């Protein structure tokens, strides 16, 4: 089997990867439309990686405008087996301070009208998602705690909101009462689609601010968010480089075979065009 590549999705504040020896940029066409931008293929820490700026070069795309299916499908077409995601988030807990980094282990969905699956149109599938992040990647992320000058939090629930507006104070207080830890606008759909594509996925959530619940903090502005992200980018890149270097060579986690028993439609009833379109994802299970 050909060695799988490591994918990196950079969010707000991480539009490029320092130390990446770029070999080529590639524009990928998918059955689901165009990804956010060209994929940057290169070498990092002696391994082949694929980098994608989530919001496009120049940050042109709102969270709700992202073509999550195309982004993840493009990674699959390029032979990616792991995705290391970096994104901004707000904190809903006092102890998760601005400039900290959280390695979440759970999601809560507050998005609306976003497409979160490759399936439908003649094929039904229901993959497990009780543990939405790859534990193997999360452990490697956390093992970098000694080489960064920020606090790493191992675990936490990421509430994914629609945006693009930040929360109202009433919403923020409700989310805190629910026991949520951090809040962001992007990672949930990526994780769901990566699971369907049998790609390992985990997130570094960079805390930019306390969400507006915090009485002693001023109302957050995008300028402050960007400023904190720039400060955190160095630590995030250190963790990513550490993870690329130390990620397992073989995938023995549930992510690698997440679709093995998830497809419930009998193969003879799946339209041929759907089989062709989804062959990179279902080809080893459906003929």
Task: Write up this protein.
The chain contains 7 helices and 11 strands. With 287 residues, the chain is of the alpha/beta class. The chain has one domain: Rossmann fold, CATH 3.40.50.1580. Strands 1, 2, 3, 4, 5, 6, 7, 8, 9, 10 and 11 form an 11-stranded mixed beta sheet that branches. Helix 3 links the parallel strand 9 and strand 10. It is globular, with a radius of gyration of 18 Å. It starts with a strand and ends in a 5-residue tail after the last helix.
CATH class: Alpha Beta
Mean pLDDT: 93
- Helix tally? 7
Overall number of strands: 11
Shape: globular
Secondary structure category: alpha/beta
Note poorly predicted spans: none
N-to-C terminal Cα separation, in Å? Answer: 20 Å
Number of domain units: 1
Strand content: 15-25%
Order of helices and strands: EEEEHEEEHEEHEHEHHH
The proportion of residues forming helix, as a percent range, comes to 25-40%
Topology-level CATH name:
Rossmann fold
Q: In this structure, how is the largest beta sheet organized? A: 11 strands, mixed
CATH architecture tag: 3-Layer(aba) Sandwich
CA radius of gyration: 18 Å
CATH H-level superfamily: Nucleoside phosphorylase domain
């Amino acid at each position: 089997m050909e060695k799988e590549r490591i994918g990196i999705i950079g969010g707000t504040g991480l539009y490029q990867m320092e130390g990446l020896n770029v070999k080529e940029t590639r524009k990928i066409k998918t059955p689901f439309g165009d990804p956010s931008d060209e994929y940057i293929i290169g070498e990092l820490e002696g391994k082949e990686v694929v980098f994608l700026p989530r919001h496009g070069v120049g940050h042109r795309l709102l969270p709700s405008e992202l073509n999550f299916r195309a982004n993840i499908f493009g990674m699959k077409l390029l032979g990616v087996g792991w995705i290391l995601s970096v994104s901004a988030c707000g904190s809903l807990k006092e102890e998760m301070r601005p400039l900290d980094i959280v390695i979440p282990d759970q999601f809560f969905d507050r998005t609306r009208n976003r497409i979160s699956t490759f399936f439908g149109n003649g094929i039904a599938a229901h993959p497990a998602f009780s543990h939405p992040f790859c534990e193997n990647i999360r452990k490697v992320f956390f093992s970098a705690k000694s080489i960064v000058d920020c606090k790493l939090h191992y675990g936490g629930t990421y509430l994914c909101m629609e945006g693009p507006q930040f929360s109202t104070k009433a919403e923020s207080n409700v989310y805190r009462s629910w026991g949520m830890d951090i809040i962001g606008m992007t990672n949930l759909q990526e994780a769901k689609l990566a699971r369907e594509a049998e790609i390992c996925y985990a997130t570094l959530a960079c805390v930019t601010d306390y969400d507006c619940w915090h009485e002693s903090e001023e109302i957050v502005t995008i300028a402050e968010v960007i400023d904190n992200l720039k400060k955190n980018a160095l630590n995030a890149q250190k963790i990513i480089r550490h993870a690329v270097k130390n990620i397992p060579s073989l995938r023995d986690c549930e992510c690698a075979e997440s679709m093995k028993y998830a497809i419930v439609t009998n193969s003879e009833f799946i339209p041929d065009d759907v089989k062709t379109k989804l062959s990179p994802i279902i080809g080893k299970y459906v003929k």
